[in-house]
Amino acid sequence: MTTAMLELQDVHTYYGNIHALKGISLTVNQGEIVTLIGSNGAGKSTTLRTISGLNSPRTGQILFNGTRIDRLPAHEIVRLGILQSPEGRRIFPRLTVLENLEMGAFTRNDSVTMKEDLERVYTLFPRLRERIAQKGGTLSGGEQQMLAIGRALMGRPTVLLLDEPSMGLAPVLVEQIFTIIQDINKQGTTILLVEQNALMALAVAHRGYVLQTGLIVLSDSAAALQSNETVQKAYLGME
Amino acid sequence: MATSHPRVAQGVPWRSIGKILIVIFCVLFLTLPLIEMVKAMIADPQLLVRQLLIGLTNGAYIALIALGYTLVYGIVELINFAHGDLYMLGAFFSLTLVGVFSLTPETPWLIRGPLLVVVLLATMAFTATLNMLVDRWAYRRLRGIGSRMAALISAIGISFVFQNLGLLWGYLRFPFMNGVMGSNAVAPKSFPALFPNVNLLAGTGVRFGAKDLIVVGVSVVLLAALYVFVTRTRLGKAMRATAQDRDAAALMGIDVNRTISLAFILGGALAGASGMLVGLYNGTAVFDMGFTAGLRSFTAAVLGGIGNIVGAMLGGLLIGIISALSDQYISTKWTNAVVFGILVIILVYRPTGLLGDDTAQKA
Ligand SMILES: Nc1ncnc2c1ncn2[C@@H]1O[C@H](COP(=O)(O)OP(=O)(O)O)[C@@H](O)[C@H]1O
Ligand SMILES: [Mg+2]
To answer: How far apart are alpha carbons A238 and B284 in whole angstroms?
Structure first.
């Protein structure tokens, strides 16, 4: 029996008058990789922003291990162990790689465990160790993506929210990033993965949701979604 | 296809005439006076060195205020128009404490020194708190409504409020203040000469007083402390992170509002220190002293690259020196115009300032 770790119940989020999420309900169970796929503008990023508290839902609830978090400010949600690697990576361009990683561990402020976590990140992304003193803004796109994920890992996430980690990366790097995502999951972190690259996302995820203009139109196991005709046509580029 | 428009080749060549006029103007009003200035500088090098040292002292206090503009702009993109007036309130507050402690030039150094440190710390705490509270009460409510203009205009409003507070303050005559205020509200208030004025370079024909050393020394210590805080500490790095990307900072668990408060606190503290130092250095404080100081410091912050912490320090030094040279070689009456001219030139030709956008130390 799995337990719901993160649960959205009928969440509505607005940008001013724009109704971006029109009643999203989804669950993420402990230990899973759940993916949220959908075309550009469907509301994937808004869903993650709402979970993280950057946007607050107008109605609906968000539960984390059974307690409501939808009225908490963003920085307190991080303290609960929900960390996000946002769309576009959002590296601090004028902080060094090391400083960026330190910021990921901001809530912990404990130098011993921070050393351990740095080691863990460097093991996952050896490239970052070579770039340690370089300014974040001078990294390549792939390196920035590694840094963004590494930075989120520094916060010791129970749930890791990843927003389009494959965006703008060369195919080899995409493979690499998805392998690392699976590794992170195997090390015990629950993952909610937002992707436009549905093919890769469904390949690594356990379950998936399909989002269309602010509504969830399909939800199933990743395998079932991969063989679903609508998904194949709309998101996997198959005829 | 595009038809070629016939150029007006004949007729009066207004463009060329305009260019020639600009050149004549530059030669007459910029180059010739500049040559005269350089000649005067070479003719009397002692005077030049003296002015440079005055510039150093000016630069120190300007840098302290400039940091307040840059810290706040770096993080909330607000030009805090009230910042110069906060510096004035710092001067008033420190003068009030000088009165309360009955400090006079006769007070022995064993008592005067520690008490001056107390006055400095209390003044910094006062302006820091005031700056933070104004942000909480006024600017914070206006953030996130999509218009920076609203906050800017309220900052101008706060500037008036502060100046009127200064006027009111100048009128106070409680017995415990020992008469440091209480004259005519608009009149300058006198500080007792608490800083020693001996010339440390006596016999060289150049003047650098003990009080210059105090102003420069205290400023350097404060600037260095700020630099270390911002580059080495966890909170300081969080402040730079918040300035670079507010949402990403929130996603790191950084309390963005508290971090913004911190920027106002640090900027406010430095402005207070500056107010006290200048008050004691010049021996006077007046309710509208924040205008000129604010203009110079804002220009310094823009010159160094607004938002850039090292830039504000460098800009402060440069504006201090330029003002001192202008005071001597042009005219004190023209110095504000010179500084304002520099501000306009930077904004037009190099809005990112000397150190620009992408330097290491940008907040
Ligand atoms: N900052 C914003 N202001 C206004 N509308 C926005 C903003 N961000 C996103 N939207 C709108 O919300 C909807 C969902 O966007 P988003 O969550 O970014 O989609 P996705 O991540 O799936 O591409 C879109 O219609 C988009 O135009
Ligand atoms: Mg998106």
So the answer is: 80
